[in-house]
Design a protein that fits this description.
The chain has 495 residues and is of the alpha+beta class. The chain has helices spanning 2-33, 40-46, 57-67, 86-95, 103-114, 123-137, 140-165, 175-192, 207-222, 228-236, 240-264, 274-279, 285-316, 318-332, 342-347, 349-361, 394-397, 401-404, 443-460, and strands at 72-75, 80-83, 173-174, 368-371, 376-377, 383-384, 389-392, 417-418, 421-422, 461-465, 474-475, 481-482, 487-492. It has a single domain, classed as Orthogonal Bundle (Cytochrome p450). The strands form five sheets. It has a four-stranded mixed β-sheet with strand order 1-2-7-4, sandwiched between helices. A three-stranded antiparallel β-sheet has the order 3-13-10. A two-stranded antiparallel sheet has the order 5-6. Strand 1 and strand 2 form a beta hairpin. The N and C termini lie far apart (86 Å). It binds protoporphyrin IX containing FE. Protoporphyrin IX containing FE (HEM) is lined by residues 118-119, 130, 133, 295, 298-299, 302-303, 306, 364-365, 368, 432-434, 438, 440-442, 445-446.
């Protein structure tokens, strides 16, 4: 009896503590966010009035940033400063890098999925992985291993899937789905030496891909809740989306652990994949799992997103596609089945320009946030209080007249060429791969993969949008994903 009463008292005290903690945190959170703000931007955001005029939140932000004298706006209700000003971007990502880490808020959102992986940490843990990963990714044999994987996936999977849909009257292919399958197979082979086989002819459902997708989608949705307390309480009681997230992560972990255990029993010294390479230096299997999972996340949806919007733009700009074919014929000859070599790709400056131009208008990572550590003032004069989320916005930056001139909304690969040679731009004006100390480590690899996939398809097939007039809408998430996919008809060129 006394024991039972004691248990009830403990439970009561436990819930009182949780409730008081929640109330205090919520009050601090609300005070910082100013949910009562009546400025035009906040009112439009809260009432979703912006959606009457714009299809996507990123289009509305672009419009506001374009109008702003400093290229910076505040959304008080979100406690968020958003900037498209290259000087601010350079300041955050390079000059005062230490004052703008990813921060605990970000890492708690993705922490269950990514653990201590490079994407999700700051400080020493980040520095250590960055050094190790950049050594590997700059290694010539790793680069050619990645290239071989992509070439083999194009020949053995991508072409057969396209051919199986070619010329069929009702053969509508979802290009986005195909590119997601392609990049998942490629990045898993590269990271783990594992072939999930998502792009086999039957387009099978891969347990790993489904679990990984669900886990990254539900983790990203945590960022959309009004307060982090909401998802934290749901996680504590294992409810709703948090229950699903836990199950999805559990499955990802089981598969990753099995794979690591399997590899531990093999001689991996001759294996080329990242996991085998990292294994020779790291004994902690949980840390190894975190490292490679970050790579899968980094290299999967980004490439699929970039390829999807590239083909969308090409369909509205057939002259760009013809120019790409013409350039490749000059470099490779006109046999369409041949795939370009690494060296030939380097010679194709127009293709390089077209790919960059496409990501200017449709960057796969549309925005990226940091959390300010100490009170600060940005170069444009904006005051940033400690703890504020500061977001730089590559999507809006690609549409700024101040950076790209009055034709900034036009798709013009020529703007990247000088006397036919590709010219680089200031990375803080084009932070599609981020810039500064945390610039994307897979940038070169991603560009090569995008170019060879796009070029191979352009040379071998004619691709037409099944629904050319539809309005482009993105679904919210870590990477830009086209809502309802991108249905196309395909036709083999040499028939
Ligand atoms: C078109 C394709 C890609 C785009 C647009 C892209 C873009 C980005 C961006 C914006 C970041 C910064 C993210 C952040 O800090 O929040 C990033 C980081 C990173 N990316 Fe990529 N990425 C692409 C492909 C890849 C690929 C294929 C790989 C790996 C094989 C990769 C590996 C990484 C890694 C490891 C980081 C973390 C760097 C660090 O924190 O120091 N990326 N990428």
């Amino acid at each position: 009896m006394i024991f039972e009463a004691f248990t009830w008292i403990c439970l009561f005290l436990f819930f009182i503590t949780i409730a008081s903690f929640s109330i205090v945190s919520l009050s601090v959170f609300l005070l910082r966010l100013k949910p009562w703000c009546s400025c035009e931007i906040c009112q439009s955001f809260v009432s979703s009035r912006w959606s009457l005029e714009f299809s996507n939140l990123c289009d509305w932000y672009s419009h506001l940033l374009q109008k702003s004298k400093t290229g910076t706006i505040r959304v008080h209700v979100l406690g968020n400063i958003i900037t498209a000003n290259p000087e601010n971007v350079e300041y955050m990502l390079k000059t005062r890098f230490d004052n703008y880490p990813k921060g605990k808020k970000f890492s708690s959102i993705l922490g269950d999925l990514l653990g201590r992986g490079i994407f999700n940490v700051d400080g020493h843990l980040w520095k250590f992985q960055r050094k190790m990963a950049s050594l590997e990714l700059n290694n010539l044999s790793v680069k050619s291993y990645a290239f071989e994987i992509v070439v083999s996936e194009i020949r053995s999977r991508l072409f057969p899937v396209f051919s199986s849909f070619a010329g069929k009257e009702n053969g509508v292919l979802d290009l986005q789905d195909v590119f997601r399958r392609f990049s998942f197979d490629s990045i898993c082979k590269f990271s783990f030496g594992l072939d999930p086989g998502c792009l086999k002819l039957s387009l099978p459902v891969s347990e790993f891909a489904v679990a990984f997708d669900l886990a990254s989608k539900l983790s990203a949705e945590r960022a959309l809740t009004v307060s982090p307390l909401i998802w934290k309480i749901k996680r504590f009681f294992n409810l709703g989306s948090e229950k699903k997230l836990r199950e999805a992560i559990k499955l990802v972990n089981v598969l990753a652990e099995e794979l690591i255990k399997h590899k531990r029993n093999m001689d991996v010294s001759s294996h080329e994949d990242l996991l085998s390479r990292f294994m020779t230096n790291i004994d902690d299997d949980k840390f190894l799992r975190d490292i490679v999972i970050s790579f899968v996340l980094a290299g999967r949806d980004t490439i699929a997103s970039a390829l999807t919007t590239f083909f969308l733009l090409l369909s509205n700009h057939p002259h760009v596609m013809l120019a790409i074919r013409e350039e490749s014929d000059q470099v490779m000859g006109s046999k369409t089945q041949d795939l370009a070599s690494f060296k030939q790709l380097k010679e194709m400056h127009y293709l390089q320009a077209a790919v960059h131009e496409s990501m200017r208008l449709f960057p796969p990572v549309q925005f990226d946030s940091k959390f300010c550590q100490e009170d600060d003032i940005l170069p444009d004069g904006t005051f940033v209080a400690k703890g504020t989320r500061v977001t730089y916005h590559p999507y809006a930056m690609g549409r700024m007249e101040t950076i790209w001139g009055p034709d900034c909304l036009e798709f013009k690969p020529e703007r990247w060429l000088q006397d036919g040679i590709f010219k680089r731009v200031n990375p803080f004006e084009y932070p599609v791969f981020q810039a500064g100390f945390r610039v994307c480590l897979g940038k070169e690899m991603a560009l090569v993969e995008m170019k060879i996939v796009a070029l191979s398809l352009i040379r071998q097939f004619d691709i037409q949008m099944a629904n050319p007039s539809h309005t482009l809408k993105f679904t919210p998430g870590l990477t830009a994903t086209v809502k309802n996919g991108l249905p196309v008809f395909v036709q083999e060129r040499n028939q």
